Amino acid sequence: VTGPSTTLEDCMRAFFDTSDLSGDNRYFCEHCKSFQNSKKEMSILKLPEVLCVHLKRFRYDAFFTTKISRFIEFPLSDLDMSAFKKSNDKDSSECSYELMSVVTHFGGAGGGHYVAYAKNNQLNTWYEFNDSHVTSVSTDTVQNSEGYLLFYKRISPHPREQINIVDIIPPPGTTIPSDDVCYISRHWLLLKNSCCNPGPIIPYQYACQHGGILPGKEEAAKLLAVPIRKEVWDDLVRKYGGGPLVRSLDTCELCQNYLSDLKERRKKEKEDINQIQTSNKGKPETYLLSTIWLKQWQNFIHCDSLGLYGKESSM
């Protein structure tokens, strides 16, 4: 399926345009208890830091699937999303996006090949990723591609304050009191330097709610946890929120003890069920349990995490 080219903005406006619901598509009103003619409209409640646009390239009919190869013109920068968000969005001044990556599809509905383009911000250069081959390409090559997935990054109208890790970590060889050192996630620092709103400083990749390292996440903590002075942490938390405060890279004793108890509990429950099934083999008694609860319990006894299953919902 081909046709005249169009723009990404035209596609956006068509997607968010108000539509009339009438005839067989009338809306059932809960108050009137009857079908009523109405209007349907959509808007974005909160603009994301990374905007993923999926262009519909395949059409599924009753018996056939066809490829839509119409050229869609998309901008490399200054994609304005202000017309498609709710007016009460607090971040009303940050509605512009710049293109970071494109996924294209070559071929038809029966098969094809995917190629990706991604931008290196530091070098301001675009690269083509075609299986194991990576080559630099021009911006014209990117814009003339048949976009399938478009990834845009939110940009701020104001200069973004960058955080250099070298500026916040204690200098090498410096001896400072242990109570003046804490750890911040390297992942959050990357978000701070890349996004308009990095969100709260939550070290969920390796830390528990008690401020220690989750059992089994010790190696991840060594890679992701960056030591900083507590005064720097306090200043960042005042601006962005977050927690818990991680003061050492030791495994949390509370979580470790809890995990040990869970392992014993899993082992005992599994042994008890096996014993019951063996002793009751051939007996006619039957009990009905909720399938959802049973799957949760099976996942519980076969995993090594701190997760629990819900209460029994028998029938």
Helix-strand layout with pairing:
Elements: E1 6-7, H1 8-16, E2 19-21, E3 27-29, E4 34-36, E5 38-40, E6 50-54, E7 58-60, E8 65-67, E9 72-73, E10 79-80, E11 96-108, E12 111-120, E13 125-130, E14 133-137, H2 139-143, E15 147-155, H3 165-168, E16 181-185, H4 186-194, H5 218-224, E17 225-229, H6 230-240, H7 253-279, H8 291-301
Parallel strand pairs: 1-9
Antiparallel strand pairs: 2-5, 3-4, 6-15, 7-8, 10-11, 11-12, 11-15, 12-13, 13-14, 16-17
Describe the structure.
With 315 residues, the chain is of the alpha+beta class. Helix content is 26%, strand content 26%. It has eight helices and 17 strands. The chain has helices at 8-16, 139-143, 165-168, 186-194, 218-224, 230-240, 253-279, 291-301; strands spanning 6-7, 19-21, 27-29, 34-36, 38-40, 50-54, 58-60, 65-67, 72-73, 79-80, 96-108, 111-120, 125-130, 133-137, 147-155, 181-185, 225-229. Strands 6, 10, 11, 12, 13, 14 and 15 form a seven-stranded antiparallel beta sheet that branches. Strands 1-9 form a two-stranded parallel ribbon. A hairpin with a 4-residue loop joins strand 3 (27-29) and strand 4 (34-36). The two termini are 53 Å apart. The relative contact order is 0.09. Residues 308-315 have low confidence and may be disordered.
Structural class by secondary-structure content = alpha+beta
Distance from first to last alpha carbon = 53 Å
Uncertain runs are: 308-315
Tell me the strand percentage band: 25-35%
What's the Cα radius of gyration?
27 Å
N-to-C SSE string, H for helix and E for strand: EHEEEEEEEEEEEEEHEHEHHEHHH
Report the mean per-residue pLDDT as an integer.
84
Number of helices: 8
Count of extended strands: 17
* Biggest sheet statistics: 7 strands, antiparallel
Shape: extended
Report the helical percentage.
25-40%
